[in-house]
Amino acid sequence: MILKLDDNFITDNSLECEEGCYFLLTTQNKKFSKDAQNKNAKIIDVKECKRLLKIDEKIKIIGITGTNGKTTTAAAIYSILLDLGFKCGLCGTRGAFVNEVQIDEKSLTTQPILKTLSYLAFASKEKCEFFVMEVSSHALVQERIQGLEFAAKIFTNLTQDHLDFHKSFENYKQAKESFFTDESLKFINKDAAAIKFNVRNSFTYGLENPAYYHIKAYALEDGINALVAAKEQNYMIDSTLLGLFNLYNLLAASACVNELVKPKRADLEKAITHFGGVCGRVEKVSEGVIVDFAHTPDGIEKVLDTLKNKKLIVVFGAGGNRDKTKRPLMGGVVEHFAKIAIITSDNPRDEEPKEIMMDILKGFKDENKALLIEDRKEAIKKALELKEKDDLVVILGKGDETYQEIKGVKYDFNDKIIVKEILNQGK
Question: What's the CA gap between 225 and 18, in Å, rounded?
């Protein structure tokens, strides 16, 4: 990409280099640095790039990593800080935002460093005091956050995902652990799979195990009501969000904000209550119809367990060119919770949808319990047709994604819009 300066520009792509321009050297592009030098580009590091972009080094960057919960936790911190009167930026799966204005579209969970620096430059112009970002395991391995100083880091949880990239769960775990070796403020989920972390400046949070930020009592009937105890300080989490997993997300977010800015208890509680959640995360799109982004065995289990008091019709698939070992595990989880399971296409990418669906089906003890409908729109239509009065249709895997990726092409596709179209046709 190219970032324009007053009389020059910065790029991280040697093909875009011209004489006298700046080439940001990163771990990902270092093999092309000679090409940039041959074009007489000036080679710079992240520190120099920050200076050229006039990035305010006082902005406190908050990073969240974990298998699930990154997006909601990041959005909650952003919302709470804005509600408390701070100026704040946010970037992650849903795009980039500064002070409630969207400045970039949805893309990678963690962008290449030059793109992230462009967000920080914008945040600096807008006088932001905080910047919240999701940090993926891919980005940690590829050093896409090199040169960034974090004021606080959060670990949400660790379950199987991305083994297509990391090759083993241990490699995946080590990637996450690499984020927590420094002495920045850290918030570690004590109820999740254990990871190694630098205990200096670390706070733990949890429900089941002893933790600095501990849930003393909670109810999940209609939203979330919980009492948080932290040493001699107590505060309430009162939210319309659903599920135990969202209680963890809000606990992590509130603990982080509480330590960073030390707000008044009443102000913190009010700001938590005002956070309405994230589009595409357990989102009600019509009466008796919910969409969610869950696309891992653990993520699916958490969502369906939250909704298990209903009779569930579950529409789901799995992404192509990704970890194949999780597919039967996803199938097994859905079989356990669903009244009716409909296996369909997700983002098949370069794989054949039918083959992905058969991989999922292997996880069913009774394969006759699953309907296989390759066309995702038809699968959703079938679920809505089969829905009886007290049933809940749960459409998993894509959340608020606006496309379906097939053979290198991204076709317009939005589960929420499809549901509304089908329901309107039936009127």
Answer: 58
